[in-house]
Amino acid sequence: DIQMTQSPSSLSASVGDRVTITCRASQGISSYLNWYQQKSGRVPKLLIYAASSLQGGVPSRFSGSGSGTDFTLTISSLQPEDFATYYCQHTYNTRAFGQGTKVEIK
Amino acid sequence: EVQLVESGGGLVQPGGSLRLSCAASGFTVSSNFMSWVRQAPGKGLEWVSVVYSDGRMYYADSVKGRFTGSRHTSENTLYLQMDSLRTEDTAMYHCAREGPGNGVDIWGQGTMVTVSS
Fold it and tell me: How far is it, in rounded angstroms, from Cα A71 to Cα A88?
């Protein structure tokens, strides 16, 4: 099965910072890559699907890029409501999530 | 309203069985890709299984041979039969609809499964 590895596992950032989270697949997955945000006690929220398509209602400060094995989620200017855990997920054949990246307040 | 409501969780001993249900409203289960995703307390998301609209089913290696997914078209309901349960299966189980690009756009609130003696 395809494994997904996110980095970093956690990061500290300030409001207004540009934040980048990476996700690497153990083999090529084309653009079958999604990004989710999860806040404590809540179900995950879809941010980006198919590597770079913004889900409806998601602020434009979120963007995704990549294809093949290497992918990136970027938050262009971190807002207070963005402090959360972020997960990548492939849907190339079966599915799998990365281990998550916790974004904390510096 | 488009929503998913899970039920069937509870406390079970190791080696036991449970059947989870996921009732959908506002859309047709059999016309969509539907997944089960679990999250152990304080841990990350773990994909469990998916059923495609054409009926094909796939499972995570961690549950293959023990869990069986199904759907009931007239009830618009998804099921997950869980057998030979292990302590490491303890988690909140969510059913989920995959939307554009197979990203999960609708999540149920989940049902808690606790495997303990």
Answer: 9
Tokens 């494994």 sit on residue: A3
Q: Report the alpha-carbon angle B45-B48-B53, nearest 5.
A: 120
User: Which residues neighbour B34 within 8 Å (Cβ) at sequence distance 6 or greater?
Assistant: B22, B50, B51, B71, B78, B95, B96, B97, B98
Q: Going residue by residue through chain B (117 aa), what tens digit of pLDDT does each one get?
A: 999 999 999 999 999 999 999 999 999 999 999 999 999 999 999 999 999 999 999 999 999 999 999 999 999 999 999 999 999 999 999 999 999 889 999 999 999 999 999
What is d(CA B75, CA B5) in angstroms, rounded to the nearest whole number?
13
Q: Is A68 left (phi over 0), alpha (psi -120 to 50) or beta?
A: left
Q: Which of B2, B5, B22, B45 to mutate to test the interface with A (most CBs of A within 10 A)?
A: B45
A53 interfacial to chain B (CB closer than 8 Å): yes
